[in-house]
Write a structure and sequence with these properties.
This protein is of the alpha/beta class. The chain has a single domain, classed as P-loop containing nucleotide triphosphate hydrolases (Rossmann fold, 3-Layer(aba) Sandwich), CATH 3.40.50. Helices cover about 55% and strands about 15% of the residues. α3 crosses α5 and α5 packs across α7. It is elongated, with a radius of gyration of 22 Å. The chain binds adenosine-5'-triphosphate (ATP) and magnesium ion. Adenosine-5'-triphosphate binds next to α1 and β7.
Amino acid sequence: MTKIEMFTGKGGVGKTTMSVAAALHYAQSGRTLLISTDPSGSLGEIFGRKLDQKVVRVADNLDAVELTRKLVLKLWREKFADEIYTVLSAFLPVGREILDYIEGAPGIDEEFMLDYLLTMAQSGDYQTIVWDTAPTVTTLNLLFVQQLFYSHLTQAQKVYLKVKSVFSSVDPLTLINEWLDLTARIIEMLRTATRAWVVANPEPLPVAQALDIATALAGFEIGVNGFILNKLLPLELCEPHPFWRAKYDAQQDCRKILAQAAGKRPVKEIPELLGNMKIDGFLSEVAQLLCPSVV
Ligand SMILES: Nc1ncnc2c1ncn2[C@@H]1O[C@H](COP(=O)(O)OP(=O)(O)OP(=O)(O)O)[C@@H](O)[C@H]1O
Ligand SMILES: [Mg+2]
């Protein structure tokens, strides 16, 4: 199965930068898909193309797509709306407007993003999928919703079995079982094919959050490759200036805390660069710094 490499971390720490750099690198050795599940993602700006409508070829061997809420809900409608209506209308006297209501419910887009990831992973089209995630809370929510959905479906199945005799024309149980199976496959994909890099900046809050994320991912049984400590200031530049020297020392304290807490997991270090997100230059420099550890 396609390998999924996930980049996660607090807002603004460099997830997208690392994702693009890693994707460019993977694309040198096989077909690669870069997916962003950040609703305010910036992949489109980096590649200078609209990526929020469909998968677009952005470089040799490299496709990219931004899963905005709008795109996700459109795809969700196409794939699941009829099935959901069939199940609900078997239980309740509802019209198709119920789908508008469900579409607005929290968690639907999160739920479907993972289904999309699974579809792409199973398509066999890609050797690697690089997954640029939204900042911490949203991403953990996404994983949590998946588990919640699984337990809700299990309940729905039990309820249905109790009232089964009342219905005769449709068989929602088959659909519920299919969803249950799909959800189980998504959880399986997260546990077996997905590995995470947790990105942090050398500051107390991003480091603390990175460690929390690593613990949460372990709780979901998602493998953590290691940490990326991004935007470290170089000593030679800081030394002559008291302000920058103090900043450097503070960064080094955070660096030690992360290294200690990371234990055996690697911490990949990336310096603060003169970057403007251009693919030639900054991003290929980051790619070289990340490799071969990421790859
Ligand atoms: N090593 C670096 N040196 C200099 N600038 C960097 C470096 N890494 C990232 N940046 C810059 O920092 C900013 C934030 O990076 P990026 O967008 O990758 O973070 P993010 O974690 O994806 O943010 P968000 O949570 O908003 O999606 C960008 O302007 C990027 O160009
Ligand atoms: Mg980003």
